[in-house]
Design brief:
471 residues, alpha/beta, Rossmann fold, UDP-N-acetylmuramoyl-L-alanine:D-glutamate ligase, Protein-Tyrosine Phosphatase, Chain A, 3 domains, six-stranded mixed sheet, 16 helices, 21% strand, globular
């Protein structure tokens, strides 16, 4: 790869989290002059900045911009001086003063995944949706690997796409989890297979409306040709409406019967209809590690993608039977005195929490965190399954109001250890203590994984269970 690949003499990278740092490193190593900036100046940001400075990147920290604030206009002009490309980290919205000024000046403003798409030689499979992205991305990677395909999983799942794209050759498959943030700032991003799993309210603190959020998700199908495959969930009305405008071949997946070309379940078995091998029977749904409606839907999505990429049904069945969902998604931590503990920390919006609650009959729910501008009142739909609720984090008062109005006992906790103690005070034999927060984790934690580990540690400390803390 070379700087000529992206045709930029000088680039400004806005935000030096994982993705921004990876973009800056790639551009610098390719010979592009790079300036990088970040609104923050904490220890983690300083450490990443030091690495970039060693590569010759001109780093500006503590810029202090806030969305829509034009107070730093002079600094914006200085940062943009000489730049012909601006690359934004996923958490930086288009309304950020630097990005807004760049767009007004007619500069290219890309997300890191757009940069990666510009340089990638590998075949691209892109997965987005409100919930299930990480599970489906990981599963597709596992199935393709088991089938002998050179493959890497990357993107919002952890490894920045630009790192993988710069390494893989044209015979490989790049399976990338993409967020609405990343898709918003794309121009030429094109997926050989683009998957939209579902769309429900999320990130309305970043997007101006649900319609804007849904349109960003549908960009997973942008720039597709008739040779490409657009995959959508037949069970989601928003997705099917968006799929109508996709340019590639269309296929759908379902947790129920197939809705046409694609995948679904007939008589308890996962089947393919009209795929690369015609109609095919894959496996019994009962053989999946997660045979819940969500688990069946995810497996059907994986089968729809992998069959189009040439994985035979018997190989697909074997790999799906062996696959286990990633950590912090309905992870069973064990049973103590008849009470089961489940870590669903990755449920950062109400739709994900409702899907988790649907898997159990009697639940003591631990919920809360930082609300992302979402309507938490929909959680009351699961009131019939709830024994009690423990409210945590910045949104504790909102969570309490929702469930108190529904007649559910609610206790507020000020730490995860207190939350586990409070949950056990309400739980009896046969109940499930479920951490499914319906909110982001960034009030108490650095991410959902840290929140899940804290829950597992609190459960282990209270019960003596081996919850795998530290693994």
């Amino acid at each position: 790869m070379s700087a000529a690949t992206v045709d930029a003499e000088q680039a400004l990278v806005v935000g030096i989290g994982l993705s921004g740092t990876a973009a800056a490193k790639y551009l610098a190593s390719a010979g592009t002059r790079v300036v990088a900036c970040d609104d923050e100046s904490g220890d983690a940001v300083v450490r990443r900045a030091e690495d970039l400075i060693e590569l010759g990147v001109d780093v500006h920290l503590g810029c202090g911009f806030s969305g829509g604030d034009a107070a730093g206009a002079a600094d914006v002009d200085e940062l943009l001086a000489g730049a012909d490309l601006v690359v934004a980290s996923p958490g930086v919205p288009p309304r950020h003063p630097v990005l807004a000024a760049a767009a007004s000046a007619g500069l290219r403003v890309w997300s890191e995944v757009e940069l990666a798409a510009q340089v990638a030689e590998a075949e691209l499979v892109a997965i987005t949706g409100t919930n299930g992205k990480t599970t489906v991305t990981t599963a597709i990677g596992a199935v393709l690997s088991a089938a002998g395909r050179p493959v890497a999983t990357c993107g919002n799942i952890g490894t920045p796409m630009i790192e993988a794209a710069a390494e893989l050759s044209s015979d490989a498959v790049l399976v990338v989890e993409v967020s609405s943030f990343q898709l918003t700032l794309t121009d030429t991003f094109r997926a050989r297979v683009g998957v939209l799993l579902n769309v429900s309210e999320d990130h309305l603190d970043w997007h101006s409306s649900f319609a804007e959020y849904a349109e960003a998700k549908a960009r997973v199908w942008a720039n597709q040709t008739p040779a490409d495959l657009a995959v959508g969930c037949a069970d989601d009305a928003t997705v099917t409406a968006l799929l109508d405008d996709a340019g590639g071949r269309h296929a759908t997946f379902s947790s129920g019967a197939p809705a046409g070309v694609g995948t679904g379940y007939v008589d308890g078995r996962l089947v393919i209809r009209g795929g690369a091998y015609g109609d095919a029977d894959v496996m019994a749904a009962a053989e999946l590690a997660d045979a819940s409606p969500t688990g069946r839907s995810n497996a059907a999505a994986v089968a729809c993608v992998c069959a189009d990429l040439g994985v035979f049904p018997d190989a697909l069945a074997g790999a799906l039977a062996r696959f286990r969902p990633p950590a912090h998604r309905l992870a069973d931590l064990g049973v103590w005195e008849g009470i089961r503990f489940v870590d669903d920390s990755k449920a950062t919006n109400p739709a994900a929490a409702l899907a988790a609650l649907a898997a159990y009959d009697r639940v003591v729910l631990i919920a809360g965190g930082r609300n992302k501008g979402l309507d938490l009142s929909v959680l009351a739909r699961a009131a019939s399954r709830l024994v009690a609720v423990v409210a945590i984090g910045d949104a504790a008062a909102e969570v309490s109001a929702v469930f108190e109005a529904a007649g559910i006992p609610v206790v507020t906790a000020t730490s995860m250890h207190d939350a586990v103690d409070a949950a056990l005070a309400s739980a009896t034999e046969g109940d499930v203590v479920l951490l499914s927060p319906a909110c982001a984790s960034f009030d108490w934690y650095t991410g959902y994984a840290q929140r899940g580990r804290d829950f597992a540690a609190a459960v282990a400390a209270r019960t003596g269970l081996d919850t795998g803390v530290g693994t």
